[in-house]
Amino acid sequence: MDHFDYRDGVLHAEDVSLETIAAEVGTPAYVYSTATLRRHYRVLAEAIGAHPDALRDPLIAFAVKANGNLAVLATLARLGAGADTVSEGEIRRALAAGTPADRIVFSGVGKADSELAFAVGAGVRQINVESRPELERLIAVARDLGRGVDVAIRVNPKVGAGGHAKITTGGATDKFGVAPEEALALYAEAAASGAVTPVGLACHIGSQITDLAPLRAAFGVLRDMTLTLRTRGLEVTRLDLGGGLGVPYAGGAPTASPADYAAMAAEVLRGLEVQATFEPGRLLAANAGVLLTRVVHVNVRPDGRRFLVLDAGMNDLMRPALYDAFHDLKPVHLTSAAPIAHDVVGPVCETGDTFARDRPLPPVEAGALMAFTGAGAYGASMANEYNSRLLAPEVLTDGARWSVVRQRPTYDQMLARDQIPDWLQ
Ligand SMILES: *Cc1c(COP(=O)(O)O)cnc(C)c1O
User: Could you give the residue numbers annotated as active site?
Assistant: First the structure.
């Protein structure tokens, strides 16, 4: 459920008209809803909290890569969320937004030594180690710094899942994590090092998962491994279950609800007496944001094909180009006109800059405002300046209040980042 609704025929973010935001901030622009972020967090927290016997003292660590805006992170941090991070930049974002270091998890397949050192120095909660070479480098870094750190070994449970091959991470051939047998060996090596402290296991098998079966299978692998490690005299106090729960991009109820998900996790973990970490990204943020855009023009070809050309492009919202993802597109001004098929495209010079083919939409005119829904996760965070297009600004609403939480850069700022060497001056 979200807080983007029509009021008197105009789409609003909470109590703020998207027309007002477009008039003051321009388009394209991302608009986020505080009430929706809060609601999604609470629904998940309550679902997990319903199983205190099995999911004790849980941590919900928001996956910063889904939406790294400091205002979004601060909103979630105030609710008690931690952060799942995959780079030094993301750790810095989480800290800057007020996330306590002991709620920050550092994941990722290619953490540089400098990033590992930064994380150890910052006192993060745990580093999820994804390979043998990484463990060796982390041990060396921790020895150098004379400071320990808790680690979890990320297991690749050989259960892939997700809405698209490019967002499946738990398959045997995916680059993430280590096979269960090797993870057991790494765990023992970490314990023997004396430099780092293995506290648990982690997994994250993919994203936009709408079926609980693969998640259950992956959690079961962690459970079995926990028991095995304990029979070998090793302590396991935390299990990091990753993120990945899917959201209904086309509206309607979720196919796997947070309540069912939490009940399933509780069922698998019951009796293990471990602290569970959850790393939702999309689940919290996707439907808490829209990408507001204006129609540049409608180009009707002689053969009747209608191209709806928007001022937002694949550089602003990559998911359709990258993952063939579906985003609903709503007119900001409600109309009762009968929908007709449109090809919805952006201005970028790539055929891939196509948001939808043959999408039934009410006919609109140049200048009309529209909004892609479900754009709060992997939207702005993936945006780039391809075609030298300025990054879209971001706006956060909270009831009747709203604020620009990232300014649109100016062209001068964009150009000022480059330098012409003296021999060309
Ligand atoms: C991307 C990622 C997540 C979040 O995934 P969602 O599908 O957005 O929930 C969580 N954990 C790790 C390790 C990730 O890489």
Answer: 349
Q: Mark whether 269 and 356 lie in a shared domain.
A: no
What is the structure's pLDDT at 388? Answer: 98
Measured in angstroms, how far is the CA atom of residue 240 from the centroid of ligand 1?
11
Name which residue sits closest to atom 3 of ligand 1, judged by CA: 243
Low-confidence ranges of the chain (pLDDT < 50): none
Tell me, what CATH number does 396's domain have? 2.40.37.10
The predicted pLDDT at position 164 comes to: 81
> Does 19 appear as a known binding residue?
no
Can you give the pLDDT at residue 345? 98
Check residue 253 and give its pLDDT: 76
Domain residue limits at 353: 4-32+286-416
Pick the last residue of a domain from 284, 317, 337: 284
C-alpha 58/C-alpha 63 separation (Å) is 15
* Bridge partners (DSSP) listed for residue 129: 153
CA of 68 to the centre of ligand 1 (A): 13
User: Residue 52's domain is classified under what CATH number?
Assistant: 3.20.20.10
Query: Which pTM value belongs to this model?
Result: 0.97
Beta bridge partners of 289: 32
pLDDT, residue 161, reads 80
| Full DSSP string of 164-197 | SGGGB--STTSSSSB-HHHHHHHHHHHHHHSSSE
